[in-house]
Design a protein that fits this description.
Layout: E1 5-7, H1 10-16, E2 33-37, H2 42-56, E3 61-67, H3 77-91, E4 95-101, H4 110-123, E5 127-130, H5 138-153, E6 170-174, E7 186-189, H6 194-202, H7 205-208, H8 224-237, E8 244-248
Parallel strand pairs: 1-4, 2-3, 2-5, 3-4, 5-6
Antiparallel strand pairs: 6-8, 7-8
Length: 266
């Protein structure tokens, strides 16, 4: 067994607080980078390359999917779970869990913030990747806000006190396909792992085979796989490199050594 995949319904979360977190056989005390998304396949499309690059640097990664995708037009929740498990193996994440929130019905409430905060604490990440604050799918927009709020709540000891408080250092928003609303703060060079990212995307055959759009990927007449590749090439050109994934941060990025800055002006 490589990557366990579990569904964590809200009603069962409190009883699971003392249970071991489902992880792969890799030893791990905490996660360096945790990607949280509304649907199975969102992470692969928007920041799968970044997780693979983190792996290249020896970092530990994990994914939380908030819904099972039960209202999706294509495939089924059961099939998407199988595809997500295969994609997780390709991405090399140490764990992937599913919160079981209602697909097309994610809400940011005290209850859902507390439930997600508990999951965040169990992983104790340094960096959390959230969706773009802007998007045409309501689940994506709400998830971006929910993730930021849950990361803050995770640091409040009196909320769900049976799990040690942990507040991530940084929340970054992956704005792949959504840079129309904001300029990227930074772009991750994913050139060395891009083909593996595409392999993870292709794991979702029920969703993407023959498709020309998905989620925030707008149709332009090309296959979805071609759009993903061309968009990544565009983001790469901003740094410049072959392929990239763009991110936005609310906070200003810090630079210690101005002489070490990269990306040529000319």
């Amino acid at each position: 067994m490589t990557i366990p995949y579990e569904q964590f319904p809200l009603s069962a979360f409190c009883s699971l607080l003392s249970a071991p977190l489902p992880l792969s056989s890799r030893s791990m005390t905490s996660i360096d980078v945790l990607a949280i998304a509304a649907h199975r396949d969102d992470v692969e499309l928007t920041c799968g390359g970044t997780l693979l690059r983190a792996l290249e640097f020896g970092k530990c990664t994990a994914i939380i999917d908030l819904t099972q995708g039960e209202t999706g037009t294509r495939g089924s929740a059961e099939l998407r779970a199988e595809e997500a498990s295969r994609a997780a193996e390709i991405l090399g994440v140490s764990a992937r869990i599913n919160m079981g929130l209602p697909d097309a019905g994610i809400v940011n409430t005290p209850e859902t913030r507390a439930q997600l905060a508990v999951a965040i604490r169990r992983f104790a990440p340094r960096v959390v990747i959230a969706p773009s604050p802007h998007g045409r799918h309501p689940d994506h927009r709400v998830t971006a806000e929910l993730v930021r709020d849950a990361c803050f709540i995770a640091g409040l000891r009196k909320i769900e006190p049976s799990v040690p408080a942990h507040r991530p250092l940084k929340v970054v928003h992956c704005i792949t396909f959504r840079e129309d609303n904001m300029k990227p703060t930074f772009v991750v060079d994913v050139s060395s792992v891009f083909e593996r990212k595409m392999e993870a995307v292709r794991a979702y055959a029920s969703q993407f085979e023959g498709a020309t759009q998905a989620g925030e990927v707008y149709p332009n007449g090309e296959s979805l796989f071609d759009i993903v590749r061309h968009q990544a090439a565009h983001y790469g050109s901003l740094i410049p490199t072959r392929y990239g994934e763009p991110f936005y941060t609310v906070e200003t990025m810090r630079v210690d050594d101005v002489a070490s800055l990269q990306v040529s002006t000319f």
